Amino acid sequence: MSITRRELLAGATALGLGATPLASASTRHAGPKPKKLRLVHLTDLHIQPEMGATDGVNLAIQRILALSPRPDFIICGGDHVMDALCVDSARAELQFDLFNEAMKPLDMPVVSVVGNHDVFGWGNKCCLAGDPLYGKAMFEEKVLRTSSYRSFDRGGYHFVLLDSIQAGKKRSWRSVIDDDQLNWLANDLASVGNRPTIVTTHVPILTAYTQYTSGTMARPNDWIITANGREVQQLLSKHNVKAVLQGHTHVLESVHYMHTRYITSGSVCGNWWRGPHLGVHQEGFLVCDLDGEDFKPQYIPYGWKARV
Ligand SMILES: [Fe+2]
Question: Ligand 1: distance of its center to the CA of 241 in Å?
Fold first, then answer.
């Protein structure tokens, strides 16, 4: 799929999801000087009918709507649903319907990146591969309504949404930015000049998660960190990338390397609705304030109390 088509699709998605369209990246060369902009990175919702999850997501949405100033738009960082990998289609669709219902009160654009748990059937490849919505098709139809990686411009900034989830040979999935996407990313970033840029991915590009959970000498795998994250980081380092917003590990963490902050933005669900993850990472979301070259992140716990 060409860059032009992706850009068109990104614009079409914004028109469908929010009152204010997100400008396609085709206007990037004549883009305005960056102004103040506020976005929310809302990741790892893991919505489901059980454990009060729907009430928890609704509470987070109400907390977002109470922010002052209001966010200009929302980026959902993946794992919108508890799990679509290992369930039948009815259960997967039920969870995506819950997600869409929960987002309805938001009166600003919402864009998404795919999480591993958003992929339908990859955990049951033997039985579900013939389903028309198998794999990322269900997520693309129900949530994305566009391609799984893309970019857009807004308020003088450039935003890149990556797809970090690919099918695995030994396991159901692995995290890697595939070659086509990496080439697209290089061309996309080269075309925006020095415009301040924010990148979003589900699985982290850089993280120290394994060091503080398993031990400083422990080796991460491609279920924890993107396999070619180093190549991605080296590419990003050549451009004015202010932040990479990450999800997946449900921790609040920032790796500040060179001029880019790799921020893992906690999670909406904490320890999958059983309380703060690792006992310390509260249920919340990240508010990002951009003002020219300044990037200020702030984590907002929304006050969820686990019911188990
Ligand atoms: Fe998750």
Answer: 24
Residues spanned by the domain of 187:
3-300
pLDDT tens digits along 185-240: 999 999 999 999 999 999 999 999 999 999 999 999 999 999 999 999 999 999 99
What distance in angstroms lies between residue 214's CA and the mean position of ligand 1's atoms? 18
Does residue 234 contact residue 225 with C-beta atoms inside 8 Å?
Answer: no
- Look up residue 45 and give its two tokens: 């919702």
Task: Tell me how crowded residue 298 is: count the other CB atoms within 10 A of its CB.
Answer: 10
Q: How far is the CA of 173 from the centre of ligand 1 (A)?
A: 14
Q: How far apart are CA 14 and CA 79, in angstroms?
A: 20
158's enclosing H/E stretch is strand 157-161
Examine residue 308 and state whether it is found in any structural domain, yes or no: no
CB of 236 closer than 8 Å to CB of 201: no
Distance of CA 89 to the CA centre of its chain: 23
Phi, psi values for residue 281, rounded to 5°:
-95, 105
Model-wide pTM > 0.85: yes
In a domain, 75, yes or no: yes
The angle subtended at Cα 103 by Cα 100 and Cα 108, nearest 5°, is: 130
Residue identified by tokens 């040979």 is 169
| Distance between Cα 133 and ligand 1 center (Å) | 21
